[in-house]
Design a protein that fits this description.
Layout lengths: L14 H8 L6 H16 L5 E5 L6 H15 L3 E6 L2 H13 L5 E3 L13 E5 H9 L8 E7 L17 E6 L17 E4 L3 H6 L5 E6 L17 H8 L2 H14 L5 E5 L2 H13 L4 E4 L5 H13 L4 E5 L13 E4 L6 H9 L10 E6 L3 H5 L9 H6 L1 H6 L4 H6 L7 H4 L12 H10 L5 H17 L4 H8 L3 H15 L4 H29 L4
Parallel strand pairs: 1-6, 1-7, 2-4, 2-5, 3-4, 5-6, 8-13, 9-11, 9-12, 10-11, 12-13
Length: 524
């Protein structure tokens, strides 16, 4: 296999280079560096070389390859084809190319190809291009450079057979194939890794993400044929009252008054979220792929112009959407896709004069699965060459949840200020009970006793204590789920019964033992 010359790793920008970024020039130094490396490959590689370039969302991939097209057409006597996977991206790409002085033609289903000889650059969506090539209506005999945007999608690979003598440049933020059966290393000879998210943040090209993760039980989710969670199982989880309440609680705690974009897995879930926020009196809109072009334009215009707007969506805004005024991202879904995780968070990473950070609320354990956005632990070269090695190391839902520790929210913890510690270790108590030859039921008995103690410790009478029990719902749910894992019994009906039974026994224990426990407490 033929390889280009070795490329140095991207470095942090100098002070002068940071100042250059602030002057408003079209191309920044790291973008110029990327173009130089790519053109080195043009000059040294064989004609049919396949090169992959990685750069984070917001780093300016379209700007980079538009300048590449401009320079290529000036120095080569061949034409260029740019491929995208969505019609919106076709139009956006065409506009940027035009800004760079590249006259181009969009090949859509209505395009008249009689004038194709007048253009040196074409922009096309995969399926449309595939149909035109099958019909032999587009002359590609003189295409020397093929650029593939969002190259991690596998729909492009079926077209490679038409361009066996062309240099192929794929660009992506995450060089990990959307299909584990079709690794990117099978279709690309080499990967060039661009500037890191960490460097782009430090040099004020991207905003810093403030991550807030809320632990969620995901073991009810089902993985589909595409390797990610099915829409049905996701909607069953994310439309229940418990998850909707958790979403509203997270929003009120972290995002209220901020322009917020919510990602869901399923139209039904997004509609539930829309109703939830509308009923609460918040300015909210819903958008999915069934919206007409006019509806989409109106909604996005409203979102842009409304300072504290909430937009709940389904997949449609993960690529090709750029709204720098977004201040908060809520991942109201779980995903097993590293690419999707980065795409969703990237929608909030655009920097503005008065915005250098944004909030990310994770309601799908994605942070625990993939690590912080922009983690320096991600080795893109290794992921590109050995994707299975990386994927095998991603923790399962069971493994993730086994490491969770319930942390009482600050507003609830404020009602238990007299208690030094409110945490109860279910796993440790279960192991001790088994070693002592006791029934597993003693775990719940001791948990109830501990809950009763902290309620009484922070109460003046039995009525205060019973009111405090109402604040322990999430803690009780967490303990019951953890206990069910220990005893390997977790049907929905069993868990519902166990939670109700726990609360009844806790209230009964409080009534029977309040005076005795209160008497034992140290007098203040």
């Amino acid at each position: 296999m033929y390889f280009c010359k070795n490329h140095p790793k991207p470095t942090m920008l100098s002070i002068s280079e940071q100042e250059e970024r602030k002057t408003g020039k079209e191309l920044y130094s790291y973008q110029k560096g990327a173009i130089q490396k790519i053109f080195q490959c043009f000059e040294t590689a064989v004609d049919d070389y396949h090169l992959l370039y990685q750069l984070p969302t917001g780093g300016g991939k379209t700007v980079i390859f538009s300048e590449i097209v401009s320079q290529y057409l000036k120095t080569h006597k061949k034409k260029v084809l740019v491929m995208t996977h969505r019609i919106e991206l076709c139009k956006q790409t065409s506009s940027v190319l035009t800004e760079f002085g590249v006259q181009n033609k969009v090949i859509d289903s209505k395009a008249n190809l009689e004038d194709q000889s007048q253009f040196d650059c074409f922009v096309a969506m995969v399926e449309t291009l595939n149909n035109r090539l099958k019909d032999d209506k587009l002359d590609i005999s003189d295409i020397g450079l093929v650029i593939i945007d969002e190259a991690h999608y596998n729909s492009f690979t079926k077209l490679f057979k038409f361009f066996e003598k062309s240099f192929v440049l794929g660009v992506t933020a995450t060089p990990l194939s959307s299909n584990i059966e079709l690794p990117m290393a099978d279709n690309y000879n080499e990967l060039i890794v661009g500037e890191s998210i960490e460097s782009l943040i430090e040099n004020e090209f991207l905003a810093q993400a403030n991550m807030f993760s809320y632990n969620v039980g995901l073991t009810s989710l089902v993985v589909g044929a595409n390797g990610d969670y099915t829409v049905k199982s996701s909607e069953d989880l994310y439309t229940n009252n418990e998850m909707l309440s958790k979403l509203m609680e997270a929003y009120n705690e972290r995002c209220e008054g901020k322009k917020t974009l919510i990602f869901n897995n399923g139209i039904n879930t997004s509609l539930f979220v829309f109703d939830l926020f509308r009923s609460a009196g918040y300015p909210v809109a819903h958008l999915d792929n069934t919206a007409t072009k006019k509806e989409r334009t109106q909604i996005l215009k409203w979102f842009k112009e409304t300072p504290n707007a909430i937009l709940t969506s389904v997949s449609i805004l993960t690529t090709g959407f750029d709204e720098p005024t977004v201040e908060s991202i809520i991942l109201n879904r779980a995903t097993k896709s590293l690419t999707l995780y980065y795409q969703m968070i990237g929608r909030g990473s655009r920097i503005l004069k008065n915005k250098n950070s944004f909030d990310v609320i994770d309601l799908g354990n994605n942070f625990h699965r993939f690590g912080p956005w922009g983690s320096t632990n991600l080795d893109w070269q290794r992921i590109f060459k050995y994707p299975n090695y990386y994927l095998d190391g991603v923790l399962s839902d069971e493994e993730l949840e086994s490491n969770f520790i319930y942390e009482m929210p600050d507003d609830i913890r404020a009602s238990f200020t007299n208690s030094k510690d409110v945490y109860f270790d279910v796993n440790k108590t279960y192991i001790q009970s088994i070693r002592n030859g006791e029934s597993s039921k003693v775990v719940l008995k001791r948990s109830i006793e501990q809950h009763a103690f902290i309620c009484i410790e922070n109460s003046e009478d039995i009525y205060d204590a019973l009111d405090l029990v109402k604040l322990l719902t999430d803690d009780i749910d967490f303990r019951i789920h953890r206990y069910s894992k220990c005893i390997s019994k977790s049907t929905h009906n069993f868990l519902s019964w166990l939670k109700d039974d726990y609360k009844k026994k806790l209230r009964a224990y409080l009534r029977e033992n309040f005076d005795e426990i209160l008497e034992r407490l140290p007098k203040v």
